[in-house]
Specification:
The structure holds two protein chains of two kinds. Chain A is built from 21 helices and 18 strands. By secondary structure, chain A is of the alpha/beta class. Chain A has three domains: 208 residues, Thiamin diphosphate (ThDP)-binding fold, Pyr/PP domains (Rossmann fold); 104 residues, Rossmann fold (3-Layer(aba) Sandwich); 166 residues, 3-Layer(aba) Sandwich (Rossmann fold). In chain A, helix 17 runs parallel beside helix 18. The two termini of chain A are 39 Å apart. The longest helix of chain B has 20 residues. In chain B, helix 1 packs across helix 6, helix 5 crosses helix 7 and helix 6 packs antiparallel against helix 7. Chain B is globular. Chain B is of the alpha/beta class. Classes of the chains: A alpha/beta, B alpha/beta. Chains A and B meet through strand 7, helix 12 and helix 15 of A and strand 2, helix 2 and helix 3 of B. Strand 7 of chain A pairs antiparallel with strand 2 of chain B, so a sheet runs across the interface.
Chain lengths: 535, 193
């Protein structure tokens, strides 16, 4: 069969479609966004009426996926690693309810924080929830694992987690597809108590989940995605998980590693295979992308034997993503290097696009805040986080989706005046509305600027739930109408915009200012499409 | 046969279309391919790179080991130098546009930059912007760069040309022709060196 070039993300999406997916639920987040976008743009997805509209946030996405599984159909929920924090409540409890239709949770981690605020490792979440997880090493495995994951989920009535990392999500390679399967029929779970997590039910379900653990490990032991490859040189054995397996093999011509290798792409860890390696080899190197998840389990906190090495021992760096060179050094192989970077090469950090409406918003904010000194602007997650960099240096916090408003509230509660929160339209509907409600409930002295560029910009311009309804939402939540302003973030309106911000900063209560102008990227894409249509 | 390429540029300059075209030609020849891209925050005018690997054997890593790349293909001169640690110091080739993209206040002095490029052993430094503009399509500078790299790719030129045709086919015959012209001009420039 011929191969198709897929990003790791796209391979997951195609496999889910081929495995009979009925709905994907997601909020955009690098490096996971392309999974859902692929399904949205797929003819196969449209023909099968596969649900693929963006969710308001990862928690609502997870709950919808649980609901679709409840109704007997196969569902998938996708997010970036920090999105799983938002969805943690339904995620953890979905392991207690279990799944009816196959349910696959895909989480894309971002080691090295290319586009993220931390590099948390989602394998811990799967272990925390006591559910099986997978970590594909390449695009073909991303496809094969996703395809198989739905069967696993239905076989054990459990949600399963697939962990991707940036390099796999955003790297392209040829993938061979499997046969398309039909979607499941509508079918409600027979046990009426299954999805009612009253304590009396939940205790029973929890014991059921605990009872499945041995079977999960047995599955890992016999999994085609885990393999023990023997090698003659037993001075060292190597446990390599996920994409680290590729970095290991890159160091041996034709993949002929002289040492025993245990490739791990499915969890819980198959302890029998780990024991075999530890018993056979003098030293065991653990190469894994992310946290020392395997290494810590294998060596234990006492580290009695001292012969398990990896990120904890210092054989590999404790943080950041791996690469073939780092693994070579850990193997004791010669490192390679080209010429050094010439001194005149300077960093080129990302910046707001020319013509971006946020530039005008920040110019107005800086003018209005000048007399109050530094440290009083609380920002959020999105393109406008770049307001932290020169020439703006306009913001002082960025923590998590929605935190701008509630952190500003906490600072106001502490007595800081005036405080300004800056949040994007999509981030506001993701997690800012309840924050604003907290402010309204206490009539906190806070000015909130919702930068409305009518899209989810940073991830490439996905539809925003806030489109055209921001004013109404704020009014509905209880912001007084005279303290809600729509402004036009353009140079021509600079002075009047500054005046409005200054006036509201003096107001002891909640005010919302909404600078409204379309993202320059989505605008130019729309214009190009229009021009093409004219031709 | 194996060829490892670092594609370099600034977010929005369209380095990925080069990969798409070469990838298409390579896959058509039955070669294996892996291509790691940068999505997300860096695409907003920051430095971007793509690790692009072709081989007649299966490829393990999505990332090219340092010092092992056969080629840097860059649409921006300073960005081409950022990836020298990846380039094979003996046999590697650097092919770059010589027209700076200045979106930072501390961009280096152009003469010093050119002097730095001049020190390299195997290089093609080309004013792709001018060639593309003269041929009537300022936006096709990346095709000039691809043309300049084509003698070193190990893929017959006709197959690269066919891939360019394929890539632009839906945009009409005029667009196809101007891009082919840019590709050929880049190739001629490199061959005259």
């Amino acid at each position: 069969m011929s191969k198709t070039l897929f990003l790791g993300d796209e391979a997951v999406a195609q496999a889910a479609l081929d495995a009979g997916l009925s709905g994907v639920y997601a909020y955009p987040g690098t490096p996971s966004t392309e999974i859902t976008e692929f399904i949205q743009n797929s003819k196969q997805g449209r023909a099968g009426e596969v649900h693929s509209i963006w969710a308001g946030n990862e928690k609502t996405a997870m709950e919808s996926a649980i609901g679709m599984s409840y109704a007997g159909k196969r569902s998938m929920v996708c997010m970036k690693h920090v999105g799983l924090n938002v969805a943690a409540d339904p995620f953890m409890n979905s392991s207690i309810t279990g799944a009816n239709g196959g349910m696959v949770v895909v989480v894309a981690d971002d080691p090295s924080m290319h586009s993220s605020q931390d590099e948390q490792d989602s394998r811990y979440y799967a272990k925390f929830a006591l559910i099986p997880s997978f970590e594909p090493s390449n695009q073909q495995e991303a496809y094969d694992i996703t395809y198989a994951a739905f069967d696993y989920s239905e076989k054990y009535h459990t949600p399963v987690l697939i962990r991707l990392t940036t390099r796999l999500s955003h790297s392209r390679a040829g993938v061979e597809r499997k046969a398309e399967r039909p979607q499941n029929p509508l079918h409600i779970e027979e046990n009426p108590k299954q999805f009612i997590l009253l304590p009396a039910n939940a205790r029973v379900h929890y014991r059921t989940l605990l009872g499945k653990q041995d079977a999960f490990e047995e599955e890992s032991l016999n999994s085609p995605f885990n393999k023990y490859i023997d090698g003659a040189d037993k001075k060292m054995g190597i446990i390599a998980s996920g994409i680290a397996y590729n970095y290991l093999m890159e160091n041996y011509e034709g993949g002929k590693c002289p040492h025993p290798v245990l490739k791990i792409s499915q969890y819980p860890l198959p302890s029998k295979l780990i024991a075999k390696m530890v018993d056979e080899c003098e030293t065991v190197l653990v190469a894994e992308e992310g946290y020392p998840f395997i290494e810590e389990q294998v060596r234990g906190i006492l580290n009695r034997t001292g012969n398990i090495i990896g990120r904890l021992s210092g054989a590999l760096p404790r943080d950041g993503e791996l690469n073939p060179n780092l693994v070579a050094k850990a193997l004791g192989l010669p490192d390679t290097y080209g010429a050094p970077i010439p001194e005149l090469v300077v960093p080129r950090p990302p910046a707001l696009c020319v013509g971006c409406p946020h530039i005008d918003s920040y110019n107005a904010i800086n003018a209005a805040m000048e007399k109050y000194g530094k440290g009083k602007v609380f920002a959020d997650i999105g393109c406008y986080t770049l307001g932290a960099l020169p020439p703006y240096n306009a913001i002082y916090t960025t923590v998590d989706m929605g935190a701008s408003i509630t952190m500003a509230k906490g600072a106001a509660d502490a007595g800081l005046r005036p405080v300004l929160a800056v949040i994007g339209d999509s981030t506001f509907t993701h997690s800012g509305m309840t924050s604003l409600l907290d402010c309204i409930y206490e009539n906190t002295s806070v000015t909130v600027m919702i930068l409305d560029n009518s899209t989810t910009g940073m991830t490439g311009g996905q539809d925003s739930h806030a489109l055209g309804v921001l004013g109404e939402i704020c009014k509905g939540l209880g912001v007084k109408e005279e303290h809600i302003h729509r402004i036009n973030p353009l140079k021509a309106h600079h002075d009047e915009n500054v005046a409005i911000i200054e006036k509201e900063l003096e107001y002891e209560g909640v005010s919302v200012i909404i600078p409204t102008r379309e993202c320059i990227q989505t605008l130019s894409r729309r214009m190009k499409k229009q021009q093409a249509a004219k031709k | 046969m194996k060829i490892d390429i670092i594609l370099a540029g600034v977010g929005g300059q369209g380095i990925l279309s080069i990969a798409t075209i070469v990838g298409y030609a390579a896959v058509k020849r039955g070669m294996y391919m892996k291509q790691a891209e940068v999505h997300g925050m860096s695409q907003r005018g920051g430095d971007v790179q793509s690790h692009f690997r072709l081989s007649d054997q299966e490829i393990a890593s999505d990332l090219i080991p340092m010092g092992k790349a056969d080629m840097i293909i860059s649409v921006e001169p300073m960005e081409s130098l950022r990836y020298l640690p990846w380039l094979n110091p003996e046999t590697g080739w650097l092919i770059t546009n010589d027209q700076p993209f200045v979106n930072i206040p501390n961009y280096p002095d152009f003469d010093k930059l050119n002097a730095e490029l001049g020190k390299l052993k195997n290089k093609v430094v080309i004013n792709a912007d001018k060639i593309a503009k003269d041929l009537g399509s300022a936006r096709s500078a990346n095709m000039v760069i691809l043309g300049a790299a084509s003698p070193y790719l190990g893929i017959p030129f006709e197959e690269i040309e066919a891939a360019v045709r394929e890539n632009f086919a839906r945009k009409g015959e005029d667009i196809v022709n101007v891009n082919i012209a840019c590709l050929r001009a880049g190739k001629e420039f490199a061959e005259k060196l």
